[in-house]
Amino acid sequence: MKLGKGILFGALLIGVCSVVNSAEVVKKVTDFNVPGEWKPYQWNKATGKISVRPEFPDELKGKGDEETSLGLKISWPGGEGMRFFTIVPEKQVTIPFKVSKGSIWIKGTSNGRYLELHFLANGQEKDDKGKLYKLGGPGAFNFDNWRKHEFTIPADWPQPLTIKSVTFHDWGCPQPAEDTFYITRYEFTCDDAQKLGDSTGAAAGGQKAKTNDAW
Questions:
Q1: Over the stretch 64-84, which tens digit does the pLDDT of each residue have?
Q2: From CA 122, how far away is CA 126, in angstroms rounded?
Q3: Residue-wise pLDDT tens digits, 98-133
Q4: Residues of the chain with pLDDT > 70: what percent?
Q5: DSSP state, 99?
Q6: Which residues make beta-bridge pairs with 163?
């Protein structure tokens, strides 16, 4: 995987996708489709690779967006315990508004693996009890079509939130397997009347998404 030059993808937060009510708006953070915007975590316990791909949810097509996603090919070695494959942004991005909920579009292979979304809450990785600020995905992947996974940000999480990572893991799945996942359209519902600071962070690429079918 080649990484491009860094650009501010926190700036995407400025663009309002839709109004929920007088204070809340839905803001797109990323479609995961700029080359080099995300990279595999260096200490992953499963092997894999990522690439910008031409797959995209039919429900989102025709709206003028770049109709691509991030593909992840993951090889699970199997065995006891848990393996994970995590991707991280080239630089973390802080959402500069009070966040109540979010969503991400996912397409998977039906081998029973799992998704987790990890955050920093007001700059902290864990709460005072040592619990990570993370949210689970739609359960075990037993589907191979596009689905929109919606989640609620716990009210007791301190904010602002920072996008830390996206993780796939194989807890309870000791069998070796090969999986291919696609993710796109990472959005958050924010109260734009409660600005918490400037968005920070960068993702690589300044160029439009490019695909390579021989990945």
A1: 889 999 999 999 999 988 999
A2: 10
A3: 999 999 999 988 788 999 999 999 999 999 999 999
A4: 80
A5: E
A6: 93, 119
Mean residue pLDDT of the chain comes to 84
Cα angle value 27/28/29 (rounded, 5°): 115
Closest listed residue to residue 193, CA positions, set 81, 115, 98, 73? 98
- Residue 33 is which amino acid? N
Given 3-state DSSP classes, what are the helix, strand and coil percentages for the chain, each rounded to the nearest 5? 5, 45, 50
> In what helix (H) or strand (E) does residue 206 lie, and over which residues does it extend?
none
Q: 3-state class of 211 per DSSP?
A: coil
Confidence of residue 44 (pLDDT cuts 50, 70, 90): very high
Question: Which segments within the chain are labelled E, that is strand?
Answer: 6-7, 16-19, 24-30, 38-40, 47-53, 69-76, 84-89, 93-94, 97-107, 114-121, 134-136, 146-152, 161-169, 177-195, 203-204
196, two tokens: 């918490």
CB 215 within 8 A of CB 49: yes
CA distance 115 to 125: 18
